[in-house]
Specification:
The complex is a heterodimer of chains A (about 110) and B (about 120). Chain A is built from no helices and 11 strands. By secondary structure, chain A is mainly β. Chain B has strands spanning about 5, 10-15, 20, 25, 35-40, 45-50, 60, 65-70, 75-80, 90-95, 105-110, 110-115. Chain B is globular and about 50 Å long. Chain B starts with a strand and ends with a strand. The relative contact order of chain B is 0.33. The chains are: A mainly beta (about 110), B mainly beta (about 120). Chains A and B meet through strand 4, strand 5, strand 9 and strand 10 of A and strand 5, strand 6 and strand 11 of B.
Chain lengths: ~110, ~120
């Protein structure tokens, strides 16, 4: 099976812009989670989607949002970008999210100038 | 709140040495899962091993082994006969059970950078 794919791999934006990141889960996986990784804060949970519904959410401002499509693909959107949003954004998928191992994609490296 | 501590920030060894990565966790859940992931320079987190809170049996899988002790809340990971390709950042993670009883969120430690020198 193909692994989790994320596009784009690299992105450069300026403050105030918005950005959309995409994640395609492993075939058959219905749960998609997003994580932010920065040198200072490490890996932090953003949110989880299952069956097109946000099932769980981390402690991030409302500028961070996401959605999931009927084919389980997920997008994450960040509006009004700030310098501190520069990070590696990792997507993970699992069959149902419950007691499952999460498998990660290669990430999207976002740089905000 | 859950917490994972990896006290070792960096470890450097010579190829063929054994190396143990330490992980200590805090949780109030009675059911939880512990994981080890590896992150090579490419950035992708690679799943290595998983253990649930009810199974303290320690196992060996190839060159990997782990020592899970609930009494000390530790989940240590050992690489035997290390190789240069093992060089990466290793993360210990703990899953959190939400109100619905499902494990959905991973809480990660800060990671340990392992460098294996030839």
């Amino acid at each position: 099976k193909a692994g989790v794919t994320q596009t784009p791999r690299y992105l450069i934006k300026t403050r105030g812009q918005q950005v959309t990141l995409s994640c395609s889960p492993i075939s058959g996986h219905r749960s998609v989670s997003w994580y932010q990784q920065t040198p200072g804060q490490g890996l932090q949970f953003l949110f989880e989607y299952f069956s097109e519904t946000q099932r769980n959410k981390g402690n991030f401002p409302g500028r961070f949002s996401g959605r999931q499509f009927s084919n389980s693909r997920s997008e994450m959107n960040v509006s009004t970008l700030e310098l501190g949003d520069s990070a590696l954004y990792l997507c993970a998928s699992s069959p149902s999210g419950e007691s499952d191992t999460q498998y990660f994609g290669p990430g999207t490296r976002l740089t905000v100038l | 709140a859950q917490k994972v501590t990896q006290a070792q920030t960096e470890i450097s060894v010579v190829e063929k040495e054994d190396v143990t990565l330490d992980c200590v966790y805090e949780t109030r859940d009675t059911t939880y899962y512990l994981f080890w992931y590896k992150q090579p320079p490419s950035g992708e987190l690679v799943f290595l091993i998983r253990r649930n809170s009810f199974d303290e049996q320690n196992e060996i899988s190839g060159r990997y082994s782990w020592n899970f002790q609930k009494s000390t809340s530790s989940f240590n990971f050992t690489i035997t006969a290390s190789q240069v390709v093992d060089s990466a950042v290793y993360f210990c993670a703990l899953s959190e059970v939400n109100s619905g009883g499902s494990n959905y969120k991973l809480t990660f430690g800060k990671g340990t950078l392992l460098t294996v020198n030839p």
